[in-house]
Amino acid sequence: MSKNVEYVNPVGAPPAQGLYSHMTRVKAGELIFVAGQLSVNNAGDIVGAHDFDLQFKQIFDNLKAVIGAAGCGFDDIVKFNTFLVHAQDIEHFMRLRAEAFPRFFASNVYPPNTLIVVDRLVKEQFLLEVEAVVRARN
Fold it and tell me: CA 2 to CA 75: how far, in whole Å?
């Protein structure tokens, strides 16, 4: 975890219902708002049309590239918003996140995440989208 970003589960709050914290405490600094990332490669092609696993991997690869371009890493993430097209993919998302997050984050504490099920995303082939708020490194 970055020394400027602290994930907090306050005493008295109910337990988180997944791999996330209830809040993030951010020391003063610039915030970066990352647009929702989709499963698109550098050539602009859709990766894993209708394949949840491939889309999850590509999306987090894209997030890493975008925040890396700002000189940041996953430990600088303040919050995620995750959009799923199908409610039946919630458990699948939770499993993939449980496998991936220990590799992405230095600690076993993770940023807050709001999970929302929507009717569809910008193209029918997309099954999920993830956006982030990041604290810039000074």
Answer: 5
Task: Identify the bridge partners of residue 5 per DSSP, sorted by sequence position.
Answer: 26
Split at pLDDT 50, 70, 90, the class of 1 is low
Please provide the distance, in angstroms rounded to a whole number, between the alpha carbons at the two ends of the chain.
Answer: 16
CA distance 82 to 52: 13
Distance CA 80, CA 14 (A): 20
Q: What is the pTM of this model?
A: 0.86
Burial of 28 (0-12, 13-18, 19+ CB in 10 A): exposed
CA separation for the pair 92, 98 (Å, rounded): 10
Q: Which two tokens stand for residue 63?
A: 């997030």
User: d(Cα 30, Cα 44) in Å, to the nearest integer?
Assistant: 29
pLDDT in tens, 87-97: 999 999 999 99
- How far is the C-alpha of 84 from the C-alpha of 23, rounded, in Å? 22
8, β-bridge pairs: 23
Distance separating alpha carbons of residues 66 and 87, to the nearest angstrom:
27
